[in-house]
Amino acid sequence: xxVLKVSSQSHPKSVAGALAAVLRxxxxxxxxxxxxxxxxxAIKAIAITRGFVAPNGVDLVVVPAFSEVNIxxxxxxxxxxxxxxx
Length: 86
Fold this sequence. Notes:
Blueprint: E1 2-6, H1 12-25, E2 29-33, H2 36-53, E3 60-71, E4 74-85
Parallel strand pairs: 1-2
Antiparallel strand pairs: 2-4, 3-4
Helix pairs in contact: 1-2
């Protein structure tokens, strides 16, 4: 499963395009965000992606989960969003 990492500086429309492309190629994708700003951008991107794929009859399901990631030698808590077509 492809992992898309989102930061608070990410452009939601760009992330949405990448997410839609990944979903066309494979069945599922993972969006990973660390921090409130990154989670905000990730949720916006998922909503935009839903608009991109809906005309093709695809409805998205998103499953949120916590994950531990190592960033710069520190353990941080990330939010993972598993995105799959219904």
